[in-house]
Design brief:
By secondary structure, this protein is mainly beta. The protein folds into 2 domains: 118 residues, Crystallins (Gamma-B Crystallin, domain 1, Sandwich), CATH 2.60.20; 84 residues, Gamma-B Crystallin, domain 1, CATH 2.60.20. Helix content is 8%, strand content 42%. The longest helix has 18 residues. InterPro entries: Beta/Gamma-Crystallin, Beta/gamma_crystallin, G_crystallin-like.
Length: 225
């Protein structure tokens, strides 16, 4: 019996390690100033003395949802493994964080209407009224490329359609040109330099009308799931 319990404890430890992620928040840009490292969900960064203080982030493992209010409320953004020297739109505005790629079947997103469940295998489109199923022609159910990039915001201008890793967007004539994007399938890492270097962001299925801090900065992309 003791051996069985010991084996169970070891298995639990390895299971936790397999799914545990880690990120470090810095009070100044370029990974300077005070810091705090988080390896579990943080519903309120005030508990860590770091509410509305983060100006740069290093994600060592896992994909994390960083939100502007406690309890994962307000605006949120996903950050995959990588270094984020600045946080445009979220500088000194992060109050909670949680890992969202632990293999769980569902996660929840908060908008003005409260908590809503979302299946990981189901994408939603977000507009001013919150998350909703796309009703603009049903493109999400049609065949086609996994990723569509547009040179203008709001899905306007020249576009390129891709379904494979691209080490240099120059190869497809779209280096530093993407301003908006539609992802039909998969989770993709987009990086500011060729060969997946520099600042990167991980995005899943959805419609991204404007790429904010990655606007006209994407030089490589690869599928991570």
């Amino acid at each position: 019996m003791k051996r069985l319990l010991a084996a169970a404890a070891v298995l639990a430890t390895f299971t936790h390690a397999a799914f545990a992620g880690e990120l470090t928040l810095f009070s100044d840009s370029n990974f300077r100033g005070q810091r705090v490292t988080i390896d579990r969900d943080a519903t309120n960064l005030a508990d860590f003395g770091f509410n509305d203080r983060a100006s740069s982030v290093v994600v060592r493992s896992g994909t994390w949802l960083l939100c502007e209010h406690a309890n994962f409320g307000g605006r949120c953004a996903e950050f995959g493994p990588g270094e984020y020297r600045e946080l445009p739109g979220f500088n000194d505005a992060i109050s909670s964080a949680r890992q969202i790629d632990r293999g769980q079947g569902r996660w929840r997103d908060r908008d003005r209407d409260g908590w809503r469940d979302h299946d990981r295998d189901e994408w939603r489109d977000r507009d001013r009224n919150g998350w909703r199923d796309d009703d603009r022609g049903g493109w999400g159910n049609r065949g086609g490329a996994d990723v569509m990039m547009f040179a203008g915001p709001g899905f306007e201008g020249p576009q390129v359609q891709l379904s494979q890793d691209v080490r240099s967007m120059s190869d497809v004539g779209f280096n530093d040109r993407a301003s908006s994007m539609i992802i039909r399938e998969g989770r993709w890492e987009f990086c500011e330099h060729a060969d997946f270097r520099g600042e990167c962001i991980v995005l899943g299925p959805g419609r991204y009308e404007f790429l904010e801090w990655m606007n006209n900065r994407i030089s490589s992309m690869r599928r991570v799931r």
